[in-house]
Write a structure and sequence with these properties.
It contains twelve helices and four strands. By secondary structure, it is mostly helical. The N and C termini lie far apart (92 Å). The structure holds zinc ion.
């Protein structure tokens, strides 16, 4: 059923609003709907499909950047009427391309993804069902890739296991021998890495102390004095007999508060603390 005929005045209005760069949804022409406005503009062959795209304002652009950095996708952005109203999914995607904000890795994965043909999928599903109960998704992918094409990732295995309805829970997967072996490998590696970082940190700490001692010595020497030094009872290294090379303790005695300097250097004291802490953690049996 044809609607109300467009009047000359309305057409003029449409032409003017188009010139202003408004989109159909932003136009107010009588009680015409955006779709009616869009159709009319197309029929009149004003521009392209008749409708100019909504311009990107600086505000919209910064909102887009912020939301994308928070992990929003173009699809979610265009579906939410609260944000960036008037920009279609396509518009958002194009803008992201121009702003070079496309997740390159994700696009590449999508582009390079090789679809399994019907026969391949059949074979893959048989394989999955045969291995699902004993193997982790990672292991299934490794086994499949050893003798079959196209290559699959752990992620794809998980996806298809889910489709088959045989996805294991995380806890179940973690209990599998493959996962346990991997956990052991990883935790050993992590432990070694952490040990290395601590060693490096302590080396750094010691070099800082040495530098500080050197500066103290040269300062007192320049004043014509000599700096009291003390040999550490543990390592026998000689450090200035002050903080922070030794710890200053305070003690309440009968004659009042007394302060005294520790007998072992700061590095050795830290080492002793570390060892006693490890001892407590492991228990005396393994010490
Ligand atoms: Zn020492």
């Amino acid at each position: 059923m044809p609607g109300q005929l467009w009047t000359e005045h309305e057409i003029e209005q449409l032409r003017g609003l188009l010139a202003q760069g408004l989109s159909a949804s932003e136009m107010q022409i009588g009680s015409r709907s955006p779709a009616a406005i869009q159709n009319k503009a197309a029929r009149l062959d004003f521009v392209g499909d008749g409708i100019p795209r909504k311009r990107w304002t600086a505000e919209a652009e910064s909102q887009l950047k912020r939301l994308i950095s928070e992990g929003w996708t173009a699809a979610r952005l265009s579906a939410d009427p609260e944000v960036l109203a008037g920009y279609s999914r396509n518009a958002v995607q194009k803008k992201l391309g121009r702003l070079k904000l496309i997740d390159g890795g994700r696009s590449r994965r999508a582009r390079d993804a090789v679809r399994l043909s019907a026969t391949q999928l059949d074979r893959f599903y048989t394989f999955l069902l045969a291995h699902a109960s004993r193997c982790t998704p990672e292991q299934i992918a490794l086994l499949w890739n050893r003798e079959n094409t196209p290559l699959v990732t752990r992620r794809r295995v998980v996806y298809h296991l889910q489709k088959l309805g045989v996805k294991r829970s995380w806890a179940e997967v973690m209990r599998m021998p493959f996962s346990k072996a991997k956990q052991r490998r990883v935790s050993k590696k992590a432990l070694e890495a952490s040990q290395k970082r601590w060693d490096e940190y302590r080396d750094y700490q010691e070099s800082e102390l040495r530098e500080l001692a050197r500066r103290r010595r040269s300062r007192t020497r320049s004043r014509g004095k000599s700096l009291a030094v003390r040999a550490c009872r543990d390592c026998n290294r000689r450090w200035p007999a002050v903080e922070p090379f030794y710890v200053l303790y305070e003690k309440q005695t009968a004659v009042g508060r007394r302060r005294y300097l520790g007998r072992i250097c700061r590095m050795c004291r830290n080492k002793r603390r570390r060892e006693s802490k490890n001892l407590r953690r492991k228990g005396p049996a393994t010490a």
